[in-house]
Amino acid sequence: MKKNWQHALAVAEQELNSAPDDSSGWLHRAYALRRVDGGSLALAWAALLPAAEKFPAEPVIAYNLSCYACQLQQLDLARRWLHRAVAAGRKETIKKMALADADLQPLWPEIENL
Question: pTM for the complete prediction?
Answer without folding.
Answer: 0.95
